[in-house]
Design a protein that fits this description.
Chain lengths: 388, 248
């Protein structure tokens, strides 16, 4: 501090250590290619940069479309206070997914190729298009926070005019590619372990994305209330917890039905890694779902937060089970990520937290008053055309 | 007329002439060390495997409806009318979905390079166009690998089994696997004993994802109407509620 340095805290030290290791791993990735920086192989071409950075990243960003649909399309106004943090999370999430992709692609400078060289039969082609378009939509949905901060009213009005089609487009694009991340694995029926391979993977991915979007919203509200000393919107979050319980119940019920139709319950008697990781995944989903049905859990900030965290980890476990664990036996190999893969992934997560903190501190993320006044004004002027 | 390769493992003597012919055609180095590697990789696009006293060959199956072609987001992989599945390195961005999707784990990657490409056998595409045999068929001294029209090779395989039923396992690998492949195998023993994957589905794999992808226009159009409609209803309800509230 003598030299004007920021105060050294435990978290900042960890953050710096992660970033340093990430930088060194980036150097390895650039100089020695994927062979020198990952444990990937011809038998196992996708590791945690796909299984975590892309698949979990996109899922955790699902709060953006879930909350937009609830607030602006279903017009449930009460959730408005958590809409902006959800959009910010989604926007950052997608940007970081693209960063992760840059590490993973063999020739990242050709990332734009799918936009020009079409193959509509490819799920990856669809994901590429949707992620590009949706990141643009999220950017536009995020812009009002910037315009308000600097008091630019003209562009603010302009963006309000296109907001409804924009939001519908966003929800559709999300639906498509959240489910498509599941469809990616439909092509490997003989490789993906039967506990996870099902023709309804896209449906399961979509429903669980909605759930994890809600859970992330609770998660980030809790954290930001602590970080910025805000009051927690507890009644609102409790009611989100109720929605989360219902969505998770629907999800778990579909999975139960799917597994019983496919007659795969007998696999659970095998003492294999897959069985245990499947058990972990399901436990992390069932426990919070059951707990969230109790009012006293929903109304206790700590318990509600713990439930949201369990759902987040449960669905991350699901994504990594589909993308990594479930693919090992069928590929006839084992995959343990190299330290440099972990370092890059952790750095991306750390940067995500840091940028979120910065934006939340400097832009009107947690108070949406500006937007409301503008809308109110519009209604004043246009209101009389409404026939009652 | 689509071309194919018939590999009869009962005739193979494990001399690896196909490997060196293949390396030559691709301009890849070939020496004793590489010859001793019994798996395909970015520097060895076909490999002779030893299974006890039997031999088997690995190469791209050049499927009739290839998973790799259907999953490639940039269309770098193409199934040609003549049979070969070709790869255009100029388009490839390196997502490696083809490697993940291939039921035979054929496409390999230049992991050690800074700007890598996928490598795989393409059934000597340009040689096929000129009416020439594949390099491996050309090199084979005993006729274990032959190259020709798929239909006549299937007939040839059937007649070999019919003539010497005791010598052959009574099936042709590649006839129906993943909807049929352009590389066909004959063997004395069940195919898993010579290292072939027998758990692959008998249906063409691109169908599994297309079933979902073909719904995209439906989802988009229905979704637009549904979401737009819901917005219209809920928004109006809110407007009406506000208006009524104001008049009271």
């Amino acid at each position: 501090m003598k030299w004007g340095l920021p105060k050294i805290t435990v978290w900042r030290t960890i953050f710096a250590a992660i970033l340093l290791s990430g930088l060194y791993a980036t150097y390895l990735r650039l100089m020695y290619g994927l062979g020198g920086s990952t444990n990937l192989s011809d038998q196992f071409p996708w590791g945690i940069w796909v299984g975590f950075d892309v698949m979990c990243g996109v899922a955790l960003a699902a709060g953006g479309f879930t909350l937009v649909a609830m607030v602006h399309i279903f017009n449930i106004e009460q959730y408005k206070p958590v809409l902006r943090p959800a959009i910010l999370t989604a926007f950052l999430g997608y940007l970081l997914v693209v960063v992760g992709l840059m590490f993973d692609l063999g020739r990242p400078y050709r990332v734009w190729h799918p936009l020009v060289m079409w193959n509509p039969h490819s799920v990856m082609f669809e994901v590429g298009w949707c992620v590009t378009l949706y990141t643009t939509v999220l950017f536009l949905e995020f812009l009002p926070m910037v315009f308000e901060q600097f008091g630019w009213h003209k562009p603010l009005e302009w963006i309000h005019k296109i907001s409804v089609p924009l939001m519908i487009l966003g929800v559709l694009l999300s639906t498509l590619h959240q489910s498509s991340l599941g469809s990616l694995f439909l092509i490997v029926p003989e490789k993906l372990y039967p506990l996870w391979y099902t023709p309804i993977l896209p449906l399961l991915f979509w429903v669980s994305a909605i759930a994890v979007g809600l859970a992330m919203t609770i998660f980030e509200s809790w954290h930001s209330s602590r970080a910025f000393g805000r009051a927690l919107e507890l009644p609102l979050l409790a009611s989100l917890g109720r929605v989360l319980a219902v969505v998770m119940s629907v999800y778990l019920w579909i999975r139960w039905l799917d597994m019983s139709h496919r007659h795969v319950f007998n696999l659970l008697t095998l003492n294999r890694t897959e069985t245990w990781l499947f058990g972990l995944e399901i436990a992390l989903m069932v426990v919070p779902t059951v707990l969230l049905y109790q009012a006293k859990v929903r109304l206790s900030p700590g318990a509600l937060y713990a439930c949201a965290v369990m759902v987040v980890f449960g669905i991350m476990t699901n994504r990594m089970n589909v993308g990594i664990t479930g693919m090992e036996a069928g590929s006839g190999t084992h995959y343990i990520p190299k330290w440099s893969e972990l370092a890059v992934t952790l750095s991306i997560v750390a940067v995500g937290f840091a940028v979120f903190h910065f934006v939340a501190q400097n832009f009107p993320v947690f108070e949406a008053h500006g937007e409301e006044t503008v809308l109110e004004e519009q209604e004043e002027t246009e209101g009389d055309s409404v026939a009652v | 007329m689509p071309k194919a390769i018939l590999y009869d493992s009962t005739l193979c003597i494990g001399c690896k002439a196909c490997e060196s012919g293949c390396a030559e055609r691709w301009g890849l180095p070939y020496n004793d060390k590489i010859a001793s590697e019994e798996k395909i990789s970015a520097h060895k696009l076909t490999a002779v495997e030893t299974h006890g006293e039997r031999f088997s060959r690995r190469l791209c199956m050049n499927c009739l409806q290839p998973a790799c072609v259907s999953v490639c987001p940039v269309g770098a992989l193409q199934k040609t009318a003549l049979g070969p599945v070709t790869y255009d390195g100029e388009k490839c961005m390196g997502c490696r979905y083809c490697m993940q999707a291939c039921p035979f784990q054929v496409p390999t990657y230049e992991w050690e390079k800074r700007l890598p490409l996928v490598r795989k056998c393409d059934m000597c595409s340009e040689r096929q166009h000129h009416g020439k045999q594949t390099a491996c068929a050309d090199a084979c001294p005993v006729g274990a690998t032959i190259n020709g029209d798929r239909d006549s090779l299937v007939a040839e395989a059937r007649s070999r089994i019919a003539k010497e039923p005791g010598k052959y396992y009574d099936r042709i690998y590649g006839l129906a696997e993943v909807g049929g492949t352009s590389v066909l195998y004959l063997s004395a023993v069940p195919f898993e004993q010579i290292g072939l994957r027998t758990n692959v589905p008998m249906e063409a794999l691109p169908e599994t994802t297309w079933r979902v992808l073909e719904l995209v226009p439906d989802v988009v159009s229905t979704g637009t109407v549904l979401l737009g409609g819901i917005w219209w209803i809920t928004n109006r309800r809110a407007e009406v509620a506000k208006k009524e509230g104001r008049r009271k």
